[in-house]
Amino acid sequence: MRQPAFYPVAASLRRVGGVALLSLRASLRTKVVVSLLALLAACVALLPRVVKGDGTPEGELNILLTYTLGFSFGILCLATLWSACALFAAEIDSLRMQLSAVKPVRAAEFWAGKWLALLVLNAVLLAFVYGGVYAQVQLRMCRSGWAEAERPASRRVARPVLPSVEEEARKTYEAMRSEKALPEGLSERAVLRVLAERAPEKYDVVNPGEEVRWRFRLARPIPAGEKVTVRIRFDTEFSARAQVTGACRLMCADLPGSAVQVELDDFTQSEIEFTVDTRAFEQPGAAAAGPAALRDFELAFRHTGDPARSAALMLRFRQDVVLLTAGGSFEANLARAALLQGSVLALLSAFGLTLSACFTLPVAAFVATVLLALTMVGNAVVKGVSQEDEKVWWNRPGIWVSRAVYEATRHAMRDEPLTALTRGERLEGAALASALAWNVALVPGLFALLGCGVLRRRELASGD
Asked: For the chain, N or C: smaller number of CB within 10 Å?
């Protein structure tokens, strides 16, 4: 009797599920999961009580969402990496892998089953942490009576329409060349790369009496009558902030001739935020002819401080000026943050499993720890290296290694969801899809090919 075409696939999936189930049972028998669960529970329950905020709802959210979730995620990262390093290595060292080699289980099925078991464990632990934090957020909102504006939100972020970092780097390079200010000993390519890397951190100066304008195009139009929030972060001399004043004028290109001006006289904080109801753009008698959705906006800021007393303002146009619009619920944003962090745990699981197949447990744990530290140091070096540092020849090997590590890990490290979650900024679906594709599919697939190849040659039949 001929077997159905899907039978081999179904049989393989059953074997993968069997390996995953056995791995989960083995973890529960060693009480590793129970111990880790108790540690995470202590972190979620005690850390908000130990770390004190400034007493404001924003400060309490920062502790709950950034400190508590961040610390718990760090514990999960280390536990996941070291546990993955032990899965294959422990079975190979104890010769238990030989018992599996005579069964019709392929190396890829072993690898996928172990990886699936780690994914399930991490999903349970991550859901426990996020559920505990969410419960505390709800408890504090009810107990303290937070106002609507103080509650956690999810808002879409629109940044100014600016030239690309490559175009800005080329423009800056040409200006430096015309002024004969190019650094010596560096090629054009190296200078352009450094300028492009620093473009997001570049500060622009707004002196008293000057005006700057930014154009925004929302990814999704908002209905007429919805609110738009303007957020501006700046840097200036602290002692001169009391003398700084300004005026913001928000215009809607979809409604020509309409504008809302807001006078700003409190620059004691480093961030200013105000909300504009788009109904204020409607002109009498023209509401019926206005568009049903608004997309294009223009924001103008004028420094109205006294030139003799006021200090200049410094802004990073690519980061510090944004428009915020409604973007769903906080609960959905929290779930997206959990998925982003779960994708990183999936990547660490695949990495640890591959090391476990290649080395013994002590060597795998050592290599994993060193590479993890090298990744963190490499990212810090790339962000902080200067052109003067690159001129010194003995610094260049370290910089080259740091850049290589950064390029290899930047896709996995670029999305840090907790800051956006705390600030009420929506984690967009495109970033989530990219993280899932990179951290859950592409890179683990490459690790699986390497790990299965090594595993097959170490303990399993080569004819598999």
From this structure: N
List the alpha helices (DSSP H) in 30-56.
32-50
DSSP string computed for 390-452: HHSGGGHHHHHHHHHHHHHHHHHHS--HHHHHHTTB---HHHHHHHHIIIIIIHHHHHHHHHH
- Sorted by sequence, the CB contacts under 8 Å of residue 270 that are 6+ apart come out as 233, 234, 235
Distance CA 458, CA 464 (A): 13
Helix 188-198 vs helix 165-178: crossing angle, to nearest 10? 120
Residue 351 identity: F
8 A C-beta contact, residue 254 and residue 295: yes
pLDDT of residue 22 exceeding 50, the answer is yes
Residue 312 per-residue DSSP state: P
pLDDT band at 125 (very low <50, low <70, confident <90, very high): very high
* pLDDT tens-place string over residues 258-285: 888 988 887 777 788 889 988 888 766 5
Question: b/e string for 82-103 if b means 16 or more Cβ within 10 A?
Answer: bbbbbbbbebbeeeebeebeee
Length of the chain counted residue by residue: 464
How many Å separate Cα 4 from the centre of its chain? 45
DSSP annotation string for 247-310: EEEEEETTSTT-EEEEEE---SSSEEEEEEEGGGGPPTT-TTTS-SEEEEEEEEEEE-S-TTTP
Measure the CA–CA gap between 129 and 324, rounded to whole angstroms.
Answer: 28
pLDDT of residue 291: 67
Q: What is the bridge-based pairing of β-strands 204-206 and 313-315? A: antiparallel
Cβ neighbours around 252 below 10 Å, total: 24
Q: How far apart are the first and last CA of the chain?
A: 25
Q: Model-level pTM?
A: 0.85
